[in-house]
Design brief:
Layout: H1 3-7, H2 15-21, H3 43-47, E1 52-54, H4 58-79, H5 94-97, H6 101-109, E2 113-115, H7 136-144
Parallel strand pairs: 1-2
């Protein structure tokens, strides 16, 4: 299964290992999906030549998400050093479950990318300004904040 190769011999009371060995589902077992699959596909594997559109703050949000993923992994690794803290949870390194930030950037670079922006583009820019602006409902909702 790859579990032993990743984490060594399972300890007693390892609920994930026991459940999978018995052919049962275990809550959260998707966190160990790379142990059951030869290759992990990404959304980019299914997009082909389809363009990818990203909103103005999505790159900042992605960067923040990469930090969260790293923080969660480190917290789970640290918890292993404090016995008696609950059920055994052997976390896989983030790069086994997710694209790294560099891989994410390369995937975006290799895609037909449309960066959406609420601002007009300068003359002579390679960007295409479709002259679309926020609709009335969006403007009203923003005024109430």
């Amino acid at each position: 299964m790859g579990y032993v190769a990743a984490f060594g011999a399972p300890e007693r009371d390892d609920p994930l290992y026991e459940a999978v060995s018995e052919g049962r589902r275990h809550p959260g077992m998707e966190h160990w999906l790379p142990l059951f699959q030869q290759k992990m596909d990404t959304l980019f594997d299914y997009l082909g030549d389809a363009p990818v559109a990203i909103e103005p703050q999505s790159e900042d949000a992605a960067r923040e998400r990469f930090l969260q993923i790293s923080d969660y992994y480190e917290a789970r690794r640290e918890a292993l050093n404090h016995p008696g803290g609950g059920a055994v949870y052997n976390p896989l390194p983030p790069d086994r479950l997710y694209l790294t930030e560099d891989e994410w950037g390369r995937c975006l670079e290799q895609s037909a990318l449309a960066r959406l922006t609420p601002f007009a583009t300068p003359d002579g820019s390679a960007d295409v300004d479709r002259r679309r602006r926020a609709g009335r409902a969006q403007l009203c909702a923003g005024a109430r904040r």
